[in-house]
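Example (one chain per record):
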Amino acid sequence: MKTGPVLVTGGCGFIGCNIADALAHRGDRVIAYDSFTRRGSEENAHWLKVRHGDLIDIIRADIRDPDRIGAAVGRASAVIHLAAQVAVTTSVENPLDDFAVNLAGTLNVLEYMRRSNPEAAVIFASTNKVYGKLLGSADVTRIGDRYVPVDKSLERGVSEAARLDFYSPYGCSKGAADQYVRDYARIYGLRTAVLRMSCIYGPRQFGNEDQGWLAHFMIQAIRGDPITIYGDGCQVRDVLHVSDAVAAWLSTLDQIDDVKGSVFNLGGGAGNTVSLIEAIDAITAIIGERPELSFEGWRPGDQPWYVSDIGAISARLGWTPKIAVIDGLDNLHGWLSSRFGKTARTAAYEGVPA
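Predicted structure:
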């Protein structure tokens, strides 16, 4: 890999700041490039600067700004591309903005890499939403408080061989970007890889109702506020603690010449699944009080069941999740309590260099 900093777009977001922290911790210089539109970005940027000082350069800019992103890409040894519009609901409300950020923004990154820095690696954050809804109500059966697929071939989860079926503007923009990143390896020889992420959770996550649902549930429970569940709560997801996700991202970066052009699912896999109701039960056990629940109708793009088959990334990179769901939720509770609990102090984050 060429010398130079690793560019992390969305580097002050939840996953981005955790990756930037891990890179700096091992001695890599990092550019954390972020538009600071997400809640918590200022605080995460301050946290990075306090921990790593000059090893991390914070750039406050949008990936749609050709001059700023072009300059950052040109001096990077690698790009970890996480910057995105991240909510299905927001994409439904404003599909043009979703397209401009997720697809046009990604194409900006790829084109600057191709024209000015083709030897650098590019790893892209995709999503399980590229597979669409996958299963309808007739394709799942309810057992207790969770859905399970009728098709026994899905016991290990959905593999990368599953048919793509972009659903919602978010699914279309991320799915198209996913395919562009893959194709730039095939057509232009760039060292790219795609990670299709499932539900990532953990410290530094400021979850809300539209994105980061485990953190959102925990925050609401800590505050004693009600939780709205869309659907019946039996929908199932595989979940992955952010420390395990970071390990997979760094392994992909370090082994990019072995896996360039590859697409991998990245999630907790069949061993780390939870339904929404089961998550509420676990949070209740941790906090000691059950939050008030209300139920609303299903939202566009909601999947009754999705579990990642992580066999490919495990086989190619030797990576497997280490943190069980209950341990991960306990860790998340510890951080969120310090940030949102009754005795928490508001973090100071003014004066972040940009």
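Caption: The chain has one domain: 6-340.
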